[in-house]
Protein backbone atom coordinates (compact mmCIF):
# COMPACT_ATOMS: atom_id res chain seq x y z
CA UNK A 1 0.00 0.00 0.00
CA UNK A 2 1.05 3.60 -0.61
CA UNK A 3 2.11 5.60 2.43
CA UNK A 4 3.97 8.85 2.96
CA UNK A 5 6.95 8.45 5.28
CA UNK A 6 8.43 11.40 7.19
CA UNK A 7 11.75 11.41 9.04
CA UNK A 8 12.85 13.90 11.69
CA UNK A 9 15.90 15.06 13.64
CA UNK A 10 18.89 12.75 13.82
CA UNK A 11 17.18 10.11 11.65
CA UNK A 12 16.45 12.65 8.91
CA UNK A 13 20.05 13.85 9.09
CA UNK A 14 21.49 10.34 8.86
CA UNK A 15 19.22 9.50 5.90
CA UNK A 16 19.71 12.79 4.10
CA UNK A 17 15.98 12.60 3.47
CA UNK A 18 12.95 14.16 5.21
CA UNK A 19 10.12 12.61 3.29
CA UNK A 20 9.36 9.90 0.75
CA UNK A 21 6.42 8.10 -0.83
CA UNK A 22 6.66 4.33 -0.57
CA UNK A 23 4.61 1.46 -1.92
CA UNK A 24 4.94 -1.22 0.75
CA UNK A 25 4.39 -4.81 -0.43
CA UNK A 26 1.50 -6.94 0.79
CA UNK A 27 3.28 -8.57 3.74
CA UNK A 28 3.98 -5.21 5.35
CA UNK A 29 0.99 -4.65 7.63
CA UNK A 30 2.31 -2.90 10.76
CA UNK A 31 4.53 0.07 11.56
CA UNK A 32 7.23 -2.29 12.82
CA UNK A 33 7.10 -4.30 9.59
CA UNK A 34 7.34 -1.08 7.59
CA UNK A 35 10.45 -0.09 9.54
CA UNK A 36 11.95 -3.55 8.91
CA UNK A 37 11.14 -3.32 5.20
CA UNK A 38 12.78 0.11 4.95
CA UNK A 39 15.90 -1.20 6.73
CA UNK A 40 16.00 -4.22 4.40
CA UNK A 41 16.39 -1.86 1.44
CA UNK A 42 19.97 -1.31 2.63
CA UNK A 43 21.83 2.00 2.76
CA UNK A 44 21.09 4.64 3.77
CA UNK A 45 18.09 3.22 5.70
CA UNK A 46 19.94 0.35 7.37
CA UNK A 47 22.68 2.62 8.73
CA UNK A 48 20.35 5.46 9.68
CA UNK A 49 17.83 3.36 11.60
CA UNK A 50 20.68 1.58 13.40
CA UNK A 51 21.78 4.95 14.79
CA UNK A 52 18.40 5.81 16.31
CA UNK A 53 17.34 3.61 19.19
CA UNK A 54 14.89 3.66 20.73
CA UNK A 55 12.77 4.61 17.73
CA UNK A 56 9.47 6.45 18.02
CA UNK A 57 6.74 6.39 15.40
CA UNK A 58 3.54 8.18 14.48
CA UNK A 59 0.71 7.51 12.07
CA UNK A 60 -1.55 10.31 10.91
CA UNK A 61 0.05 12.53 13.54
CA UNK A 62 -0.66 10.30 16.55
CA UNK A 63 2.07 8.42 18.42
CA UNK A 64 1.74 4.67 17.78
CA UNK A 65 3.59 1.49 18.65
CA UNK A 66 5.28 -0.98 16.33
CA UNK A 67 2.20 -3.20 16.19
CA UNK A 68 -0.07 -0.42 14.87
CA UNK A 69 -1.75 -1.48 11.63
CA UNK A 70 -0.84 0.56 8.55
CA UNK A 71 -3.59 2.37 6.68
CA UNK A 72 -3.39 2.98 2.94
CA UNK A 73 -2.61 6.62 2.23
CA UNK A 74 -1.49 7.29 5.80
CA UNK A 75 1.20 9.77 6.75
CA UNK A 76 3.68 7.90 8.95
CA UNK A 77 6.74 9.25 10.70
CA UNK A 78 9.85 7.82 12.35
CA UNK A 79 11.97 9.81 14.79
CA UNK A 80 14.12 9.69 17.93
CA UNK A 81 12.60 10.22 21.39
CA UNK A 82 11.36 13.80 21.64
CA UNK A 83 13.27 16.54 23.44
CA UNK A 84 11.03 19.61 23.50
CA UNK A 85 10.03 21.77 26.42
CA UNK B 1 -6.22 19.91 14.90
CA UNK B 2 -8.05 19.15 18.13
CA UNK B 3 -10.95 21.46 19.06
CA UNK B 4 -10.01 23.97 21.76
CA UNK B 5 -12.88 25.99 23.21
CA UNK B 6 -12.65 29.76 23.51
CA UNK B 7 -10.09 30.87 26.09
CA UNK B 8 -7.83 27.84 25.60
CA UNK B 9 -4.78 28.31 23.45
CA UNK B 10 -2.03 26.30 21.80
CA UNK B 11 0.60 28.09 19.74
CA UNK B 12 3.62 26.63 17.96
CA UNK B 13 5.62 29.53 16.61
CA UNK B 14 9.11 30.77 15.79
CA UNK B 15 8.60 34.18 17.44
CA UNK B 16 9.17 35.04 21.07
CA UNK B 17 6.13 35.35 23.34
CA UNK B 18 5.22 37.58 26.30
CA UNK B 19 4.46 35.40 29.35
CA UNK B 20 2.88 38.32 31.23
CA UNK B 21 0.46 39.05 28.42
CA UNK B 22 -0.58 35.40 28.25
CA UNK B 23 -1.12 35.19 32.01
CA UNK B 24 -3.14 38.40 31.99
CA UNK B 25 -5.32 36.96 29.23
CA UNK B 26 -6.08 33.93 31.38
CA UNK B 27 -7.79 35.61 34.31
CA UNK B 28 -11.29 34.38 33.78
CA UNK B 29 -14.46 34.60 35.83
CA UNK B 30 -14.28 32.17 38.74
CA UNK B 31 -10.56 31.53 38.75
CA UNK B 32 -8.62 32.05 41.97
CA UNK B 33 -5.26 30.81 40.70
CA UNK B 34 -3.10 30.99 37.58
CA UNK B 35 0.13 28.96 37.63
CA UNK B 36 2.67 29.27 34.82
CA UNK B 37 5.98 27.76 33.76
CA UNK B 38 8.49 29.25 31.34
CA UNK B 39 11.26 27.04 29.90
CA UNK B 40 14.43 28.87 28.98
CA UNK B 41 17.35 27.93 26.71
CA UNK B 42 20.42 27.32 28.85
CA UNK B 43 23.95 28.32 27.93
CA UNK B 44 25.64 25.28 29.47
CA UNK B 45 24.73 21.71 28.66
CA UNK B 46 26.67 18.84 30.22
CA UNK B 47 29.67 21.13 30.61
CA UNK B 48 29.51 22.32 26.98
CA UNK B 49 29.02 25.94 26.06
CA UNK B 50 25.93 26.25 23.90
CA UNK B 51 26.05 28.89 21.16
CA UNK B 52 22.58 28.36 19.84
CA UNK B 53 19.74 25.90 20.00
CA UNK B 54 17.91 24.61 16.95
CA UNK B 55 14.45 23.27 17.67
CA UNK B 56 13.00 21.08 14.94
CA UNK B 57 9.34 20.06 15.00
CA UNK B 58 6.72 18.04 13.14
CA UNK B 59 4.30 20.67 11.80
CA UNK B 60 0.71 19.61 12.37
CA UNK B 61 1.50 16.95 14.92
CA UNK B 62 2.95 19.47 17.38
CA UNK B 63 -0.25 21.50 17.57
CA UNK B 64 -2.35 18.37 17.75
CA UNK B 65 -0.20 16.81 20.48
CA UNK B 66 -0.17 19.96 22.62
CA UNK B 67 -3.94 20.42 22.22
CA UNK B 68 -4.44 16.82 23.34
CA UNK B 69 -2.21 17.31 26.40
CA UNK B 70 -4.11 20.49 27.29
CA UNK B 71 -7.47 18.73 26.90
CA UNK B 72 -6.27 15.90 29.19
CA UNK B 73 -5.20 18.45 31.80
CA UNK B 74 -8.52 20.27 31.57
CA UNK B 75 -10.47 17.04 32.15
CA UNK B 76 -8.19 15.67 34.86
CA UNK B 77 -7.81 18.83 36.95
CA UNK B 78 -11.06 20.65 36.23
CA UNK B 79 -9.23 23.69 34.87
CA UNK B 80 -10.95 26.93 33.95
CA UNK B 81 -8.32 27.85 31.35
CA UNK B 82 -4.96 26.69 30.03
CA UNK B 83 -2.43 27.45 27.37
CA UNK B 84 0.80 26.18 25.87
CA UNK B 85 3.11 28.23 23.64
CA UNK B 86 6.19 26.48 22.23
CA UNK B 87 8.78 27.96 19.92
CA UNK B 88 10.78 26.31 17.16
CA UNK B 89 13.71 27.45 15.00
CA UNK B 90 17.00 28.96 16.15
CA UNK B 91 17.16 30.19 19.74
CA UNK B 92 19.98 31.71 21.80
CA UNK B 93 20.84 31.11 25.47
CA UNK B 94 18.36 32.91 27.76
CA UNK B 95 15.64 32.85 25.08
CA UNK B 96 12.20 31.64 26.14
CA UNK B 97 11.33 28.24 24.68
CA UNK B 98 7.95 27.29 26.16
CA UNK B 99 5.09 28.63 28.27
CA UNK B 100 2.69 26.28 30.05
CA UNK B 101 -0.05 27.84 32.16
CA UNK B 102 -3.20 26.71 33.96
CA UNK B 103 -6.05 28.54 35.68
CA UNK B 104 -8.33 26.98 38.29
CA UNK B 105 -10.60 27.84 41.18
CA UNK B 106 -8.11 26.73 43.85
CA UNK B 107 -4.34 26.59 43.57
CA UNK B 108 -3.75 22.84 43.93
CA UNK B 109 -5.28 22.02 40.55
CA UNK B 110 -3.35 24.82 38.80
CA UNK B 111 0.01 23.77 40.30
CA UNK B 112 -0.57 20.10 39.47
CA UNK B 113 -1.87 20.83 35.97
CA UNK B 114 1.10 23.00 35.10
CA UNK B 115 3.47 20.20 36.09
CA UNK B 116 1.37 17.67 34.19
CA UNK B 117 1.52 19.84 31.05
CA UNK B 118 5.30 19.98 31.21
CA UNK B 119 5.81 16.29 32.05
CA UNK B 120 3.66 15.31 29.07
CA UNK B 121 4.96 17.76 26.54
CA UNK B 122 8.55 16.82 27.31
CA UNK B 123 7.85 13.18 26.46
CA UNK B 124 5.10 13.31 23.84
CA UNK B 125 5.25 16.55 21.81
CA UNK B 126 7.30 16.13 18.61
CA UNK B 127 10.09 18.69 19.06
CA UNK B 128 13.82 17.89 18.90
CA UNK B 129 16.65 20.10 20.11
CA UNK B 130 20.07 20.36 18.56
CA UNK B 131 22.76 22.30 20.39
CA UNK B 132 25.33 24.19 18.36
CA UNK B 133 28.56 25.23 20.09
CA UNK B 134 32.29 25.76 19.61
CA UNK B 135 32.84 22.00 19.58
CA UNK B 136 30.28 21.41 16.85
CA UNK B 137 26.60 20.48 16.99
CA UNK B 138 24.80 17.62 18.58
CA UNK B 139 21.27 16.42 19.13
CA UNK B 140 20.07 16.53 22.73
CA UNK B 141 19.25 13.07 24.08
CA UNK B 142 15.96 12.36 25.82
CA UNK B 143 16.36 11.98 29.58
CA UNK B 144 15.16 8.89 31.42
CA UNK B 145 14.02 11.21 34.22
CA UNK B 146 11.49 12.83 31.88
CA UNK B 147 9.87 9.52 30.99
CA UNK B 148 10.00 8.45 34.64
CA UNK B 149 8.22 11.65 35.66
CA UNK B 150 5.08 10.41 33.91
CA UNK B 151 4.70 7.74 36.60
CA UNK B 152 3.60 10.42 39.07
CA UNK B 153 0.44 10.87 36.99
CA UNK B 154 -0.80 7.30 36.94
CA UNK B 155 -3.71 6.68 39.26
CA UNK B 156 -6.68 8.92 39.96
CA UNK B 157 -6.11 12.58 40.73
CA UNK B 158 -7.51 13.99 43.95
CA UNK B 159 -10.16 16.40 42.63
CA UNK B 160 -11.37 17.30 46.12
CA UNK B 161 -8.31 19.43 46.85
Element order of chain B: H for helix, E for strand: EHEEEEHEEEHEEH
Arithmetic mean pLDDT of chain B: 89
Number of DSSP helices of chain A? 3
Span between termini of chain A:
36 Å
Query: Which spans of chain A of ≥5 residues are poorly predicted at pLDDT below 50?
Result: none
Question: How much helix, percentage-wise, in residues of chain B?
Answer: 25-40%
Write the element-wise H/E pattern of chain A from the N-terminal end onward.
EHEHHEEE
| Oligomeric category | heterodimer
Descriptive report:
The complex is a heterodimer of chains A (85) and B (161). Chain A is α+β, with helices and mostly antiparallel strands and 85 residues long. Helix content of chain A is 28%, strand content 27%. Chain A has 3 helices and 5 strands. Chain A has helices spanning 9-15, 31-40, 45-51; strands at residues 2-7, 19-23, 56-59, 62-64, 75-79. In chain A, helix 1 (9-15) packs antiparallel against helix 3 and helix 2 (31-40) crosses helix 3. Chain B is α+β, with helices and mostly antiparallel strands. Chain B has 4 helices and 10 strands, in the order βαββββαβββαββα. In chain B, strands 1-6-8-2 form a 4-stranded mixed β-sheet, with helices on both faces. In chain B, strands 7-5-9-10 form a 4-stranded antiparallel β-sheet, with no helix packed on it. The longest helix of chain B has 18 residues, at 107-124. Mean pLDDT of chain B is 89; it is low at 1-6. Classes of the chains: A alpha+beta (85), B alpha+beta (161).
Amino acid sequence: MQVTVLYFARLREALGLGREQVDAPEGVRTMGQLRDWLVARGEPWSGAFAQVAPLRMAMDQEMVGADALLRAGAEVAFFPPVTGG
Amino acid sequence: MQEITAGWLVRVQAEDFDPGAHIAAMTTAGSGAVVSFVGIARDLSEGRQVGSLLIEHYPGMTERSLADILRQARERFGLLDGRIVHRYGILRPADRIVLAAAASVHREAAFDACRFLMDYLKTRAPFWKREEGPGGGQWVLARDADEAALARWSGEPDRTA
